[in-house]
Here is the input.
Amino acid sequence: MLNILGNLLHGLSASIADWRQRQRAYAELASLDDRSLADIGITRSEIPYVLSHAAQDRAANGTPANSNFQRAA
Here is the structure.
């Protein structure tokens, strides 16, 4: 029972931390001007899409979106 509660709290805290990280990334991207966003290849309307897909990719393969990990070709 204690293990289940610990896992639940760990999952909840990880979810909250992930949400906060997405909110900070959104605020940072939203603060850029349109020209800066174009330089990195996105438009203002694509910010939520980019962040949601980055989160899904991190969850799928377990690596951070900004890691320098390179896969073997």
About this structure: The longest helix spans residues 2-31. Residues 13 and 68 are 26 Å apart (CA to CA).
